[in-house]
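re the bet — no i am not wrong, look at it urself. input seq straight from the record:
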Amino acid sequence: MPDIKLRKFPWPFQAAMAINSDLDNTCSGECYTTMMDYLNSDRQTPIGKGLALETANSIWFYNNTTTPQVSWFNGTGKERNTYTARLVELMQSGHIDTLHTFGNFNEGGFKREHALAALDELEKLGVKLPVWVNHGNKRNTQNIGYWPTFFGAVPSAPEYHFNLVKEYGIRYFGLGKTTHILGQDAANNPGVYFKNNLQKALRYTKYRNLPESPFDLQNRLMWQTTLQDGSRIWEFQRWINPWGGKSTTNLPDLARQLDPKYLHRLIANQGYLVLYTHICDGLNIQTGIPAEVRRSLEYLSALHKDKILLVTTTARLLKYYEVSRNINYKIITNGNQADIFIEPQLSVLNNSYQVTPNDLQGVTFKCKPTMQVTLYLGRERIKCTQYETVGHKKMVITVPWVSLPYPC
């Protein structure tokens, strides 16, 4: 057997994360777009010099509450808000990737017709949002999952809409599970082992009466789940904090969540992480980003620029995770030559997914430094880059990870 192995993360990163922000309490379109410019561009913004990260945001279409919220439509009607042209650009570029349900229905009122109108709007725009995240209190009966007030995937309920969501093409679902373990699918070191066992104990004590566990007991980033209508989906969990207590998950709280000591622990744990936050909740454009939050975000940006910690969108992280952990490949060698043939069909979710060359971004193989490796997807040769590792003990062949162009 040739000495060729699939690497866990895109080369040369040692861990990977996404900032998954719910847009609750984003009070204006200006607040939303200014924060996106600050996180993703490298230009001067009203709240500071851009960080040149790669992050995405969430969207909803309706606001059926009395509080000011950013939404596509004004209220629950079909009149677009004034800032939607910029939101279209961000959706098309991949910098909005999450449907945070169809809207803020914390005061009730969701109907299947809301889903039909919202998805029709997305189809007209030619935009596919790959990620769904549940929202809000028990009056949000549109939510998906097994809690008593979640009817989005219950065929007999008037709120049932999952067949529409499935046909539209949403692939990844955050149904409410949150974890305190710093890194999912992490190395099984003592800290990860202890906290995972602590969460398991809590499931059967403090949380024993809940309809399902509030976190994944195997500390996975993503797994396959069957819904009430029999559909199979990818469900993922989000990380809330490492200290185990409650969190405000707003902008000021981000300083603690992204404390450098926690970022380095994530790297040491070699984990994946989808961070749960409300990054515009607490933002005041006039007073700017709190100093301690700015420091944490700048440190995160430095780790990303130094290619230590990959920071990307939720959709891209979950796609990389899905593909890299489920691809089948065979290796044919001839002396120092090796051909790696990746099967184009991915057998997941009870069906077959056709892998594209773009889906392979970041996929990396390690091999002996003397080997010449060629990578194929089916019969199509894939453009790769080869690097020698530190000390020249290994060589890696990687499909380059290309950053999303940010629309200015």
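see?? The first strand starts at residue 5 and ends at 6. told u. also Residues 327-398 form one domain. so pay up
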